[in-house]
Specification:
Layout lengths: L1 H10 L9 H8 L1 H18 L2 H8 L2 H9 L10 H19 L9 H22 L10 H22 L6 H6 L3 H27 L2 H22 L7 H38 L7
Subcellular location: Membrane
Keywords: Membrane, Transmembrane, Transmembrane helix
Main location: membrane
């Protein structure tokens, strides 16, 4: 977060635009969800079985789908969209069916993570999309605010957990490669911060959650077949393929909706012209 704040302030200050204090106050609602999503994700992966995390995260698009129906420009729902989301859930279920289970420990963190993740995506979509209720802040300005305001609750949690006293020892124990990896993680974090805002301004919150869930299974394949750090059973390969297929089908369903909307808008524009024949 600090690296993102510094990068925006030092290298992108010319493109930072903040319309008003009211826009900043509106965006401030996102900060607790943004930080909560990051923290609860770490804790969910630490205390809950991976199978539980993977399955329940695929349910998040269903929740956002219902809420986006109440937006100023509501998300249109079609049968292919619903079918693709259920395909992802089925694929995730297949994948996790072959995983070892260690009970339901940490399920509270999983649900809390879903709550924060869905809230973060929905609020960002509402305030980024031009057809919803956008704030007058540039993407670099939003990246700056997201990370600067997100630091505040993070610092509070660090103080509660007494982690500040651990920082000197952690820094001293870093090797040269350790510094390299930390530096690279900061660069990746900057990229994620900005491109996440950019992507959310272009697609719905539900589409973003579907994209994130499908990406997780692509990463699983990279780990298994490229990095050779994970071994998969046949049923897990099938489950991962089905989940990724569900993500692709969702993308095609959204593409069909947008093409239809574009064609309808073009027809209405032509009909509205003087002398047009219907």
């Amino acid at each position: 977060m600090l690296a993102s704040v510094l990068a925006m302030a030092l290298f992108c200050f010319r493109s930072i635009k903040i319309g008003s204090a009211w826009d900043v106050l509106r965006w401030t609602m996102v900060a607790p969800f943004f930080t909560g999503m990051l923290l609860s994700s770490i804790l969910a992966l630490k205390f809950a079985p991976m199978s539980l995390v993977v399955v329940f995260r695929t349910l998040s698009p269903m929740l956002s789908l219902l809420i986006e129906r109440m937006y100023p420009d509501p998300l249109r729902i079609t049968a292919p969209m619903l079918a693709s989301i259920f395909t992802m859930v089925f694929g995730a279920g297949l994948y996790t069916s072959a995983m070892s289970r260690s009970g339901l420990g940490g399920i509270g963190w999983v649900f809390l993570n879903i709550f924060f993740a869905v809230g973060d995506r929905l609020l960002q979509r509402l305030m980024l999309a031009k057809d919803q209720n956008p704030v007058d802040i540039s993407k670099t300005g939003i990246t700056l605010l997201n990370n600067l305001e997100g630091l505040l609750p993070l610092v509070v949690v660090m103080a509660i957990k007494h982690e500040f006293s651990e920082i000197p020892e952690a820094v001293q124990s870093l090797s040269a490669m350790g510094y390299v990896w930390v530096g690279l993680s900061c660069l990746v974090g900057i990229g994620i911060s900005y491109t996440g805002i950019w992507a959310q301004s272009l697609i719905s919150a539900t589409s973003f959650l579907v994209l994130v869930n499908a990406n997780k299974f692509v990463i699983i394949f990279v780990e298994a077949f490229c990095l050779k750090t994970k071994s998969l059973t046949a049923i897990q390969v099938v489950g991962a393929c089905v989940t990724i297929l569900g993500g692709v089908l969702y993308g095609k369903a959204r593409e069909a909706i947008e093409a239809e909307a574009k064609a309808t808008g073009e027809t209405e524009r032509l009909v509205g012209q003087p002398g047009a024949k219907v």
